[in-house]
Fold this sequence. Notes:
Blueprint: E1 2-4, E2 9-12, E3 15-18, E4 22-30, E5 39-48, E6 56-58, E7 62-64, E8 69-70, E9 73-75, E10 82-88, E11 95-97, E12 100-102, E13 107-115, E14 124-125, E15 129-134, E16 140-142, E17 150-151, E18 157-158, E19 163-165, E20 172-175, E21 181-184, E22 187-190, E23 194-202, E24 211-221, E25 242-248, E26 254-259, E27 268-276, E28 281-284, E29 288-291, E30 301-308, E31 316-317, E32 325-328, E33 332-334, E34 347-352, E35 356-358, E36 361-363, E37 369-377, E38 386-395
Parallel strand pairs: 7-15, 17-24, 32-38
Antiparallel strand pairs: 1-4, 2-3, 4-5, 6-9, 8-12, 10-13, 11-12, 13-14, 13-15, 16-19, 18-22, 20-23, 21-22, 23-24, 25-26, 26-29, 27-28, 27-30, 30-31, 33-36, 34-37, 35-36, 37-38
Amino acid sequence: DTSTSSSACSISASILTIISAGECSIRLSQAGSSTVIEFPDAYFVFTIGKAPQSAVTLGTTSTIFGVPLSLTASGGDGSGGLSFAASDGSAVGCRVVNGALLSNSAGTCLVETTKAESENFATLVSSPEVVTIDKASHTMSFSFSTLPSVKVGDAPFNIGSYAQLSSSQSASFISGSPDVCTVNGSVVTVRTVGQCIIDAEYSEDTNFLSISTVTRYFTVSGSSPSVSNPSQIVSESVSEPRGVSLIRGGSKSVIASWDVPTSGQSTITTYVATLSPGGKRCSVSVKTCTFTGLNPTLSYKVSVVAVSATMTSQAGTSGGVTPNIQMKVKGKTNLRTMITAPSKGAQKWSVKGGCKISGQMFLAATKPSSCTLTLVTAKYKTTPKSTLKVSVQILK
Length: 396
């Protein structure tokens, strides 16, 4: 006969069943009979160890720089609690505070998950998992609406506070009218009367994405004119340029054009055209300008202001235009000079319209035509799947 005196195991019909971790005590006994002498009870005691847990995995493995990631995990066994520890990957300052992952930079952190032991399961410490800290996007507010009047002869002044970034970073500044004003860092020096054009931008760095150029203007005035009759001083407002349009130009280029404003024509000294996205700009005295070296997968718009010696008009804006690529018949070029892949994901190229692809080369059609080149890039890490297309005009 066998029996147990432990909650960790049981015996039924000579079958031992493990119930839980702990100590299992088994008693063996043999009753006597007319032919068998009674056997003294024997006891066997052994320990049932705790079982290893199944793997645990983090619930989320990516976040954005500056946004704490509340850590969670699934898997494992038993009722033991979870805890986390972090170490630096390519990011620096990786740490866990109150269950949230923090870092001092974008990059990667290595997170180790511990699930504590419980009644039947041993403690589990996972292998480190990679958590990606993506660069953060941010915005910029740039305005000279509170700038006091500026006159020739004023001391250099700082404009850093007029560009406020949501990330609390600092913008960089460039003068678009160096004959009127110059910029050194964030300090402006005025040189002569006119419109001071300032570009503010933020270039991508370790932790933050870039911000496209934002252009603002302020007037630099001179001394008041000396006239016997003040009523002779005429201030003529300048309205926005009319009929702003944008058309395709040569390969990877667009041409902007516009008509003169309805008021203030006689005072206009310059037109400033700004292309978006990207912030390319031209300052001209004529009513057209060309932008080259553009991305043929993007749609562009242009805004144009008229500038006089004392004021800047509101902007006239065009509709959107996507530049194309132009090639001669039977020409050829590398595919990667035509479309830049957004990630290292697997690539699939295709073309329609009489052109061909051979290896990594694009082969133009044998007669004038229009082709469409398409690149499909598979998802790679945090970059989603994308489809980019360009129009290719085949010329004689």
